[in-house]
Amino acid sequence: xxxxxxxxxxxxxxxxxxxxxxxxxxxxxxxxxxxxxxxxxxxxxxxxxxxxxxxxxxxxxxxxxxxxxxxxxxxxxxxxxxxxxxxxxxxxxxxxxxxxxxxxxxxxxxxxxxxxxxxxxxxxxxxxxxxxxxxxxxxxxxxxxxxxxxxxxxxxxxxxxxxxxxxxxxxxxxxxxxxxxxxxxxxxxxxxxxxxxxxxxxxxxxxxxxxxxxxxxxxxxxxxxxxxxxxxxxxxxxxxxxxxxxxxxxxxxxxxxxxxxxxxxxxxxxxxxxxxxxxxxxxxx
Length: 285
Description:
globular
């Protein structure tokens, strides 16, 4: 009997200790940010979507390539929903059978070589080219349009990502102001002239820009914007790619984003600032 009583008492003590640890973790969790949140992005445009930095960069590239194809916003929604379902907006090295990349396209089905398909720009370009061949895709549900391109074994699966994709599309195509916010700390992936050059090259490739991008110095660049919508397209793209290009500050109009901030903040007079987007990268250490 004493042994049983002793065991029961020990179990009670363990349960009390576990409950105390759980409650303590909840209280601490309310006061600190865990490392997982250190490189996250939040998009708010009539809805909220949270992605990691790599997913955000991929989504921004998919949206930009859609504009290069001169397609309506609906095409970008379809493309993003497809990539959401196929890869979680991640550039996967493999998948089912020989599937590769954001859209899980298969070399054996004529989408290109594995190396080509692993290039997000190439993959998005091929998706849009295939979508344009689908008669009446503009009037279809998101999942039906995606299925015409992908020919998936789960034809209804794309629809569940339609809402998130519409939020991303509104932000990334410039239909919302200050809608993309990414935060990251630690050492930047790139610095100085190398970062500014890579950033300029990325803008040129994603948006088809040439003379619109000017490397203002070894630590920054400016992008000419024809109007507010165009300006926010480039500004949101720059924030989306900030983590992998060492961007620490982006400004458009009277609003500014920094890599450690959790929102766009007002920084002065808007006059004479809506004609260009300004980005600053981290200087050489």
